[in-house]
Amino acid sequence: MGNRSVPIVVLTALFAGGLMTLQAGPFVKKFGATALAGWAAGYAVLRELGPILIALMFSGRVGANNTAELSTMTVTEQLDGLRALAIDPVQFLVVPRVVAMVTMLVALTAIGDLVALTGAAIVGRVLLDIEWSTMYHGFVDNLRPFDFLHGIYKSIAFGGAIAVSSCYFGVTVRGGAVGVGRAVNHAVVAAAISIMLLDFFLTYLTG
Amino acid sequence: MMDADPRSMPGRVRRQIAAVGGALLAGGAYTRELWEVYVATWAGVARLVSRRHLQQGRPRGEIVRQMYWLGNRSVVFIAVTLGFIGMVMAYEACLQLSRVTGDFSQVGAQLLKLDVSDFAATLTGLMLATRIGAGIAAEIGSMKVTEQIDALRMSGVLPIDYLIVPRFVASLVMTLMLSALGGVVMYAASGLTAKYSFGVNPGTFFDASMVRGRHVALLVIKAAAYGAAIPVVAGFCGLRARGSSEGVGWATTAAVIGGSFSVIVLDFAISAAALLVLGGDL
Prior knowledge:
The structure holds two protein chains of two kinds. Chain A is an all-alpha fold. In chain A, about 90% of the residues lie in helices and about 0% in strands. Chain B starts with 10 loop residues before the first helix and ends with a helix. In chain B, about 50% of the residues are buried.
């Protein structure tokens, strides 16, 4: 789940970091406020954009995949087979997936944050002529460890939400191929909504 | 040792080079096929406009029905997700300002400019890539694995004209509409958060003085680009589905990833082009 998602997370994070520098671009061009770009991009990436985008990608890749796998098992009655062998499907299938997803999303967010800051610095250098060192000081002087931590504990909550919704829609599926498609669709939609809700409440409650 | 390989390179290195080369070739073939579907979709739209499709027996009102499924049924989803993002953005922006200057007079105008020129269209596009991308891929993928697509081909109907073109037109129109709606909801939610959490006067917050025509143009260009990309990527993934229910699951996953990633890449490309063309005036 985790290692195979690294390429897509790295690519997403690279573009996302670049985008945040681009949004600060007009200011930088107009006022020459190069220190601002590092502050704005770093802050947005670490606290909001990094965790949210990586969680959305993770939900698309791992969550949807997991729903597809579990629902295929459900419609081919493999879960009933497990029950007949006195194996609890939740214990056997759901619990390892939930633990793996939460752990890996946290790890991927940490990687993605770093890559996104690199992307922000590259775009700043190439498109806006901001020196590497200016960007670096923009990050270091304005960001606190808590900003990074804020993104990390959000990603724990997002990982839990993605895992629970993808497993729930996987084991409750009805019907054949059509049902599997619908279950995946519902799982990613539920995950996206819960990511946004959790993001708001975590930001609001913890500042 | 050398896996009995007569050539001089060690087997492990060879295998790794072969793996990288294989991945590149597969990626190239994938991109080419996706491009062909995109071109075929535009050809289908051209046939639709020139009315040459009439003998092909498309169900009447298919585009309107797709607009309802892709657009109207996404309204609540878009309103909820973008509303919450708007609240978070206002909260984070005001929190930062209260630590630095404490001057909230510009925050509303700046946020509106960001919403219009980027966030409204891009976040709507990301959310729609999840919702309608997964829906289209699941539907077309199910048809593919139950051999309904082959049945269409047998009857002399082009699957792209019949299945992807109506969704393409519907998504193009509805992404524009939903981006506008999403932007309004998002900004309203931002304003309410600023008012109730930081006491920013709504009269100061709802300030459109920094929005120019070019920002609105960017919104339209971005929404149109995402609206065109999402159904093509999803339809392409659906048409590639193999096997049975597992294949449909894989196709749906690929559609969500492909759609979200193309939204992010398109956003980057369009924003960078706008910055290079307009510079500090953006």
